[in-house]
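Q: Convert this sequence to structure tokens.
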Amino acid sequence: MTPRRVSYFEASARARVAGLMDPGSVLEWCPPQQRHSSPHLALLDAPVAFDDGVMVGSARLDGMPLLFAAQEGRFNGGAVGEVHGAKICGLLRRALRERPRAVLLLVDSGGVRLHEANAGLIAISEIMRAVLAAQAAGIPVIALIGGSCGAFGGMGIVSRLCDALIMSEEGRLGLSGPEVIETVQGVEEFDSRDRALVWRVTGGKLRRALGEASDLVGDDVGAFRAATLAALVRPCEVRDLERLLADQQALETRRQHFAEARDGLDIWRACGFAEPDAVPMLAVDDFNRQLAAAQAGARI
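A:
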């Protein structure tokens, strides 16, 4: 019997965790019953969540012990505040003691909460440091992006620090979100209502073509599970200072190579796709096949 498809994009954070992990293996830390909510939101009479919008805990994936953090994009757009960030940071620090096979970050975040911006920004810096500490200890950190909020702002930066980044076509990744760019630079620079443009600039197909995403999968929790399992058996490079400097140089080279590119169409053309206009309509398997052929120098 073919497993029932479950949309990763539409699922809640807890439904994603349940679909990814081995049945009966999930143990949530700081659950909603303990009411760890943001004190800042309460002072502003803003809605609160008793888990502050993120689920953290331990589980098993095909028998392998993992730690995980799953952001709930339906609460405050998955934005990071003091408590929310502390839960993710604490999870990564606990990984140094428990030595899991990996840490999974199910990212679904528009950035840092404006309600508690300073606390949120500090939390992001602490999460970044904790990610690097886990990697230095030989613990891979894997990001999964496929929710409605994508991965922007601080969590966009955190995602790019990870050893592997698994995205769906529906996922988005960037620093400033489309609405922020439009507000600061004007609609002439970026029309956030142009959904096709948004996905050509921030979507999974572009990020995979640029090499920022290690895997592009369909909008299915099962597909994310399979890609995560594959990522867990791939060797991870040591993320030391030398590697980070090499990554920075690669980004500079890429910036120069695509200096004239305006959006994904120009990128896909430069990558070797014979019909870049058709790329947004390609099925994921067809896209991956054509990208592999382009990277191998074959005619698409």
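The mean pLDDT is 92.
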